[in-house]
Write a structure and sequence with these properties.
This protein has 371 residues and is of the alpha/beta class. It has two domains: 132 residues, Elongation Factor Tu (Ef-tu), domain 3, CATH 2.40.30.10; 145 residues, 3-Layer(aba) Sandwich (Rossmann fold), CATH 3.40.50. The chain has eleven helices and 17 strands. The strands form four sheets. A seven-stranded mixed beta sheet has the order 12-11-10-9-13-14-17, with helices on both faces. A six-stranded antiparallel beta sheet has the order 1-2-7-6-3-8. Strands 4-5 form a two-stranded antiparallel ribbon. The protein is globular. The C terminus is likely disordered.
């Protein structure tokens, strides 16, 4: 019954009588039922540990869930949702969240803590700021396939906005395996940058990119800065316009791009055009695809289906992004991804407006604006 959740349920249906018969033949063992229940509650019942606003539009939610934290591997994600019973209510509206797919930013295995970073885009993502320390939440995961982090490679990480939160643990894992990491961290505005120390720890060299002038000041001798978009920054780096570099683009074995579909598509197109001369043939390019998601239970609802196109053979295939979000950059059909991301646009706009109204009535929006 290896595979999806439905198959697992079938396995449990056939397997539990066998397990029950075997347990009936054995004497009860430690721990006592009460102690076992307490241990399972502590390990499995997720509770909010802290909620911190990092930027005007980004919130960090730290959850205490020891077993989920220990199981995490870089690149995986969680499904976070509040309980309706604990949700606030305003004007007849229950502020219950839909399940949100949130990538783990960092974990503390000793304390049983895991961090998720939320970009407030309206709707359920805006409700994360209402979560209170100690509040029980629904946390599924970790799910998805861990990012491959082989040893002895030179890796180029390309992060846009919220995508930089995903790359903290990935970059650190590469460096722990002995790989070199060159990190391009891109932002729209100066105030969008967060977790600077985490990004520096994840890379041997960082190029800070910002669309807004005057941009950033590098905090380490080996780091650089650029005002403009991330593709322009890679071009400037490769051409030598930023000065001497420690890691030439010609030595890159693997590219991992994480950010908006527009940014990842731009990186993919530039690799085949303006940037092609800087990279050696045969390097791998991976994009972490942010498909729409609903169940996140692997091959169930198909909300996360992503079309692939093989440029060599013309073969079309589809994959479940919740099963493996890291996909071949040259095969991803970004046009289809953009259409799927906007398929519920009208409903999402209405929900965004209503949630904004509810938060203002609760005083949360006014308080945030005053700060």
């Amino acid at each position: 019954f290896a595979g999806n959740v439905v198959k697992a349920m079938g396995g449990a249906t056939r397997g539990y009588p066998v397990v029950s018969r075997m347990l009936a033949k054995r004497a009860p063992a430690a721990p006592e039922p009460a102690a076992l229940k307490a241990r399972l509650d502590d390990e499995l019942r997720a509770r909010v540990h802290a909620v911190e606003r990092l930027t005007p539009k980004i919130v960090e939610v730290v959850v205490k869930a020891p077993m989920a934290a220990r199981a995490f591997q870089p690149g995986q994600f969680y499904r976070l949702q509040n309980y309706e019973a604990h949700a606030q209510r305003v004007d007849g509206t229950t502020l219950a969240m839909e399940g949100l797919a949130l990538t783990g930013a960092w974990i503390d295995r000793n304390e049983g803590l895991l961090s998720t970073i939320v970009l407030e885009m309206g709707g359920s993502s805006d409700l994360c700021t209402l979560l209170q320390p100690g509040e029980p939440v629904i946390l599924m995961g970790p799910t998805g396939t861990p990012t491959e982090t082989p040893s002895g490679e030179t890796v180029l990480l390309v992060g846009g906005g919220l995508g930089n939160a995903v790359l903290f643990s990935i970059g650190a894992a590469f460096r722990a395996e002995g790989s070199r990491v060159l990190y391009f961290a891109g932002y729209k505005t100066i105030e969008d940058r967060y977790k600077i120390a985490d990004i520096e720890r994840a890379a041997d060299s960082v190029v800070w990119c910002c669309d807004e002038a005057p941009g950033f000041q590098p905090g380490r001798p080996q780091d650089l800065a650029f005002v403009g978009n991330i593709v322009q920054a890679i071009e400037a780096y490769g051409s030598g316009a930023l000065g001497p570099v420690e890691i030439p683009l010609a030595e890159v074995d693997r590219i991992i791009a994480i950010g908006s579909d527009g940014m990842m598509n731009a990186v993919g197109q530039a690799r085949r055009a303006a940037l092609k001369r800087y990279f050696r043939p045969g390097h791998r390019a991976i994009a972490s695809i942010n498909s729409p998601m609903q169940c996140m239970m692997k091959e169930i609802c198909a909300q996360c289906l992503q079309r692939h196109y093989d440029p060599a053979t013309g073969t079309e295939t589809v994959v479940f992004s919740c099963f493996n979000q890291d996909q071949d950059l040259d095969r991803v059909d970004f046009r289809t991804l953009r259409r799927r991301l906007s398929q519920n646009g009208a409903q999402e706009k209405l929900t965004k407006l209503w949630i904004d109204r509810c938060l203002r009535h609760l005083g949360w929006r006014a308080a945030a604006a005053a700060e």
